[in-house]
Amino acid sequence: MTDTVSPGGETGSVELIDVVKMFGDFTAVDSINLQVQPGEFISLLGPSGCGKTTTLRMLAGFEEPTAGEMRISGQPIAGTPPHKRDVNTVFQAYALFPHMTVAENVAYGLRQRGTGKAEMGQKVAEALDMVKMRPLAERKPKQLSGGQQQRVALARALVNRPSLLLLDEPLGALDRKLREEMQIELKLLQSQLGITFIFVTHDQEEALSMSDRIAVMLDGRIEQLGDPYTIYEHPSSAFVAGFIGQQNFFNGKAAGGGRAVSAEGCTLISSRDTTGLSDGSEALAAVRPEAITVTDTDPGGQQNVIRGELAGISHLGDVIQFVVSAGEGREILSRVPRTSAPRLDTGQTVWCSWNADHTYLFTAEQAELVMADPASDKAEVLAGN
Ligand SMILES: Nc1ncnc2c1ncn2[C@@H]1O[C@H](COP(=O)(O)OP(=O)(O)OP(=O)(O)O)[C@@H](O)[C@H]1O
Ligand SMILES: [Mg+2]
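# adenosine-5'-triphosphate complex -> structure
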């Protein structure tokens, strides 16, 4: 994995160099390399069990790596106990002390360090202001909603202004609407404070919307590291393509000098760079639902046109989703902005079409990875292939 960020010892930088974590003979983290810039918001994204929490726990000091080196702000951290590292962690379960008030919870770490009363009062007030919880400072955790409790947990982690904050699915316990609000607030807070965030999630939309860069992980490795645009538009493997966003996958054989895949009676043509595809070999084509247009007339003579029957229409807020049945169990998903969606009825004959720029081609080895991953949230997209 190459990285454009130069190694640096600036406050808030993080470096993982060939970091390995074994539990017995099981490799949970498999030689990870990652350089995080000061003030960067980086997400670790991947299916359950891929090693996200283990990576955070090593940075926090709750686990020691089996091999490799880790540095925070340029300093090697091996052997440094958790409370001596310039880092705090926020977990999914907020773990507030139930018998203490909000203010006492936030003050806890400062009190442990023997911070003076006046300074402590001021720091706690500042931290509670950051998360808009000062009016509720005297409440106990059980008198708060889930979102409010998570804000307190955040204030507690920020009160001593660490250079690095590790967040392990911090919004996982919140309902969708609150979660989306907190995503915006958290991102805003992070950019205001300039603290480096390493944020673990298995929610790809959350990672896409909040991160400067995303490390997509699988089986203890980083599959791809890049900014959200690159990860979405230029997935380096079928796994990344399938895990980030939705895909229509087509199994078939490479054709056309490695520029096409013949699958299920149709040929999917790509104008993208493809590597390692030789004609006749097993291959996989992927097309995102939002790249596919559905029309009630034959667009005629184009590449990448599939005829079918409109099997379903779903209204997803600002987007309409069409499900087109193209025979033999093959279903094609299309998503069109509401304002430009055609008026169609289920049962009618329709044509799916897309530009060759939007066909991704992968080798069979990469395809197997997607197919074999039972933990992937996207497994259902593959149904019918
Ligand atoms: N203390 C441990 N002993 C043995 N195996 C462990 C231990 N901690 C984690 N593992 C294993 O290491 C792998 C990675 O676990 P980890 O908790 O890092 O996954 P994760 O990516 O955070 O998953 P999730 O999204 O479910 O939280 C898993 O297979 C897990 O079972
Ligand atoms: Mg985890």
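# post-check
The two ends are 31 Å apart (CA to CA).
Confidence is low (pLDDT under 50) at residues 1-6, 371-385.
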